[in-house]
Amino acid sequence: MPLQPLPSPISPSDEVLCEQVRMGNPDAFRALVERYEAQVAATVIGMLGRGPDADDVGQETFVRFYESIDRFRGEAALGTYLTRIAINQCLKTIRRRRSWTRRFIGEAQLDAPLPDPPAPDTTVDLDNRERDALVHRAVQALPPKHRAVVVLRMIRELSTNETAEALGVPPGTVMSRLSRALAQLREPLALFHGDLS
Amino acid sequence: MSVSLDRLLSHHRGELSDAEAEALRQRLASDPALRADAARVASMADGLAETAAPSFGPYFSDRVMARLRTPPEADPVVAFGDALRRLFVRVALASAVVVAGFAIAAERDDDFYGGSFVEAALGLPPAAAETFIAFEAETLVPLQAQ
Question: Which three-class secondary structure state does DSSP give residue B87?
Fold first, then answer.
């Protein structure tokens, strides 16, 4: 099932919380952060892997939303709006990483595999950590725009149209990027489908 | 007409309409290669979805709220560039004031030997041909006489 905010009969709607945030209620903003943390985390950690960068981008996503809340009028669902901010921040971070790598390490290292991300969550068993690390390496090897489609369409389980809306591209572009990304993921993710051909 | 992997994924997730799903089921029934693709897409989708991170870790909302209360730290590279720019502007302004001061002082000095404003501003001797000849006459001729 796609990650959705937990429904609760007593929790106010996004619109009500946004209005309260505009009136200066910090508790309303905290409620929105807690409601959408899972969606933003799945997006950002899917794009960047676990680590300080991901946490920083997660925070930056909500800070940017807070700063632009007067401009948010609900044309898109709040989850889509936050996803769009998160993806843009992730792409910016990836560009900065590449620029840093190019400047200090060299062009040849740009396509080298990234080291395994730290896995501080000791509650997850080793098999799952190894699986997550393998998936992370495979997804990180994708070009950023293809990676975004895989993260939204396959990890976040958004529909084609939701993915297209979040990325600001036509649905056909989502389909073609997904097709190319899956072709590239076929071998590294053979553990899921048992096909090493 | 080929079936896209996105459509196979949509079918696996139950996102297609009844009519679309039925049409695709018929294609799958008659096409073993398409069935293999569908099975592979389904297993990859399920496997990837399981890796979705549920949170950033404990106290994430506290970190966000704390960040809203405190101004963000400036990027050290940008901060250094800004500081350098401010320093340059101050030095340039101070230099302009000093040069202007010299120029005014030189212009008011009656003994100044008639160069241009720029020479006066920079405190340089005039570089006109007549002063050069005079300089030669004063310094070189006595040397030749020796």
Answer: helix
Q: Which two tokens stand for residue A115?
A: 């080291």
B103 and chain A in contact, CB less than 8 A: no
Per-residue tokens: A19: 């209005």
CB pairs under 8 A between A and B: 122
Q: Yes or no: say if A42 and B49 are a contact pair by the CB < 8 Å rule.
A: no
Choose among A38, A154, A159: nearest Cβ to B55.
Answer: A38
Whether this prediction's pTM lies above 0.80 is answered by no
Q: What are A85-100's pLDDT values in tens digits? A: 999 999 999 998 887 7
Residues 85-114 of chain A whose Cβ lies under 8 A from any Cβ of chain B: none
* DSSP 8-state symbol, A117: P
B65 → closest Cβ in A26, A131, A193: A26
Residue A112, burial from CB neighbour count under 10 angstroms (0-12, 13-18, 19+): exposed
